[in-house]
Amino acid sequence: MKTKEKILQKLRTAPGTFFSGEDLRAELGISRTAVWKNIQTLREEGFSISSVTNRGYALLEEPDILTEESIRASLSTRQIGQALRVFSVTDSTNNEAKRQALQGVPHGTVFVAEEQTGGKGRLGRNWVSPPGLGLWFSLLLRPHCTPQQASRMTLLAGLAVCRALQKEIKVDARIKWPNDIVIGSRKVCGILTEMGAEMEQIEYVVIGIGINIHDGCYPPELKERAVSLDEATGKTWNRAAVLRAILTEFEEILQENERCGLQTLLSEYRSQCVTLGRTVSCSRPDGEIRGQAMGITEEGELIIQTENGEKAVIYSGEVSVQGFYGQK
């Protein structure tokens, strides 16, 4: 970690609290001049840092920027996000992750963009990704699992986002199967999982996540279906802080999965899933299925009790949930 990041990390431990230049110098093993120079660099990057003689430095406000420094400082993970690739603009962070996966970048690498020109949603839809307004990023994982087991990563990612928004933002975020996060009946986040596999062995999994942070990040015509964090809370949120919270929760969930297996996490996912118990309809090539969502399998499939009494297991497709996104 760079000296600048270490100073920022220290100031972040207690925003508004003064840390003396002498204490910073001693803790980091640098000169007082080096402390001052790094503080000046942080100020130039937009960090509001107060300095008072005989008291030291205090962090008053952070700029809403996405840089390696703004993300990495205070990030407590061991793997997820320790390798970062930050872009001012790219076609799609998922595409970037897949390209670099073939070049051998490590497990846990995170790709972040201020803007995507070709952001992707499910079923080939375009994901609007304007600069400075949302959080658009992808995680590259190299799990030891089969393609069938890799589908669980979408569930784990949804749970991580849900946990992070509940803890960090204090909103009642919930999961709409398979890959949406909602606040109330409106969508705040979408997740798209893609993978590269050879025979029955996964080479990599890419999890793309898009979150509406600030007002204006989605088109006006989606007002009844979409919501931003700022809009939902009446506050303005720092995107790097939201990203750190999600990466932290995702690493914890992966560790829980290794320690305890999927069952505990799947039980939590089901409790957070607003789809279950509701009337749903699913469009498939062989026709539409309509009924009540009854459960979710270990492979992430949705179980529907159809109107004619039969059970259908849905792995993918366009699923509408009564009461969400304007569905009657």
Summarize this, please?
The chain is an alpha+beta fold.
How far apart, in Å, are the first and last alpha carbons? 52 Å
Instruction: Please state the structural category.
Output: alpha+beta
Portion of residues within helices: 25-40%
The pLDDT mean sits at: 90
Largest sheet: 7 strands, mixed
How many strand units? 14
Strand content is 25-35%
What is Rg?
22 Å
- Point out poorly predicted stretches: none
The H/E string reads: HHHEEHEHEEHHEEEEHHHEEEEE
Which terms would index this structure?
328 residues, alpha+beta, seven-stranded mixed β-sheet, five-stranded antiparallel β-sheet, 32% helix, 27% strand
Describe the structure.
The protein is an alpha+beta fold. Helices cover 32% and strands 27% of the residues. The chain has 10 helices and 14 strands. The chain has helices at residues 3-12, 21-28, 32-44, 68-72, 93-101, 147-150, 152-169, 229-233, 239-260, 262-272, and strands spanning 48-52, 56-61, 84-87, 110-113, 134-141, 173-176, 180-183, 186-198, 201-212, 279-284, 287-296, 302-306, 311-314, 318-321. The strands form 3 sheets. A 7-stranded mixed β-sheet has the order 3-4-5-9-8-7-6, sandwiched between helices. The chain has a 5-stranded antiparallel β-sheet with strand order 13-12-11-10-14, with no helix packed on it. Strands 1-2 form a two-stranded antiparallel ribbon. α1 crosses α3, α2 (21-28) crosses α3 (32-44) and α7 (152-169) crosses α9. The termini are far apart.
